Amino acid sequence: MRERSTPERREADQRGREGEAQAAMWLVSQGWRIVAERVKTKAGEIDLIAQRPGLVAFVEVKWRARSVALADAIDERRLSRVAAAAESVMHLYATQGEDVRVDVILLAPGHKPHHIENAWMP
User: Fold this and answer.
1) Parallel, antiparallel, or unpaired: how do β-strands 45-52 and 55-63 relate?
2) What is the pTM of this model?
3) Are 50 and 57 within 8 A, CB to CB?
4) pLDDT digits (tens, 9 = 90+) for 37-69
5) What's the CATH number for 7-116?
């Protein structure tokens, strides 16, 4: 049975979408090109796929209302799901010879985005 959408769940989803849009704009300002958003796979969802010459990043975005909550926003289990999802679609976004990595962007109101490069190291 599918769980019904609650107002709280819809609000959290909306905040997540806003965080992803903010992260995408920030990445573009840093010289990245966004090639895909919210890519769903059997293994999980990839929030953003960003590209620079020679590099493709599969990006997990975490937004929290308070910056102190960011420390617990990402863990090995979540990162492994993003990595598995990335692996399943990598052939669609990365060409032979391009480096590939999993990054994380942590967001909180009033704080600069915190970009963790190459966050997944199996």
Assistant:
1) antiparallel
2) 0.88
3) yes
4) 999 999 999 999 999 999 999 999 998 887 777
5) 3.40.1350.10
